[in-house]
Amino acid sequence: MRSLNEKTNQKPNQALPAKIFHWVSLISLFLMMTSGLQIYNANPVFGGRGGIHIPAIFGLGGWLAGGRHWHFAMMWLFALNLLWYGVYVLWTRRWRHRYASGKDLKALVVSQNEKRKNYAWHRLAYTLLIPLLLLSIFTGLGMYKPAQFYWIVDSFGGWEALRITHFMAIPITLILAGIHSQLGRKVGGDRLTDSMFWTD
Ligand code: HEM
Ligand code: HEM
Fold first, then answer.
1. Could you report the per-residue pLDDT of 178-199, keeping only the tens digit for each?
2. For a substitution probing ligand 2, which of 135, 183, 196, 197 has the most ligand atoms within 8 Å of its CB?
3. 66-91: per-residue pLDDT in tens?
4. Atom 36 of ligand 2 has which residue's CA nearest to it?
5. Lower CB density within 10 Å: C or N end of the chain?
6. Nearest ligand to the C-alpha of residue 26?
7. CA 82 to chain CA mean position, Å
8. Long-range contacts formed by 83-91: CB under 8 A, 24+ apart
9. Which residue from 17, 22, 7, 6 is spatially nearest to 130, judged by alpha carbons?
10. What is the C-alpha to C-alpha distance for residues 73 and 57, in angstroms, rounded to an integer?
């Protein structure tokens, strides 16, 4: 458990693939979100063309076609990054100890130890990010190729619901990533965060 690093004064150490995954996730997510907001602004899902617009500064691409170009170029970086990380997690059996487990859920319910609970929340927050990002690929695929993947559109009950679900990846990712980084600081301080992004 990483929080023990604090107690033992041991330097937290992250696997290189986890670091690469983080850097590429942050960069590709930033580009996906900003280009997505550019697309959104052309025809807001909330209220149509006269509806709720996002300030232009948050958009990437300048106009609808520019936003789409960025979105469809960056989706490869974003999706392939998740893919190789997924292969790595399965291949190395990292999934067995790195993600929220039944023990963490039990700790959240019965443990009296505040540190253990924070640690469980921390693992739960980053674990939840993975299915959320996979869902954004799934819904995005339904919008990208609606003729081939009509069943994705149908499974969400129609185009509008699919668009809303896809859009919701932005606020939910931002909230979860914010909670994840705050909890990371809580359980391991700045040293833990630095270990994921900067130190070797
Ligand atoms: C591989 C993954 C993804 C694919 C294939 C994909 C695909 C698409 C497609 C086809 C559209 C509609 C484009 C159009 O109507 O011209 C779209 C819109 C959008 N995407 Fe993605 N996307 C992906 C990931 C993401 C991610 C990770 C985010 C943000 C976290 C995101 C945010 C958005 C937003 C906000 C819109 C505008 C929604 C709307 O108003 O309809 N996308 N995406
Ligand atoms: C939305 C983007 C992010 C995703 C998808 C994500 C996902 C993950 C995942 C899957 C892990 C476990 C990695 C492994 O060991 O294989 C993890 C760990 C970690 N993440 Fe993130 N993360 C994101 C953003 C951030 C941000 C913004 C920060 C801090 C500012 C952060 C800090 C950390 C730290 C410090 C750990 C190590 C936790 C530990 O060793 O206990 N992450 N993250």
1. 999 999 999 999 999 999 999 7
2. 196
3. 999 999 999 999 999 999 999 999 99
4. 196
5. C
6. 2
7. 10
8. 85/17, 85/21, 88/17
9. 22
10. 20
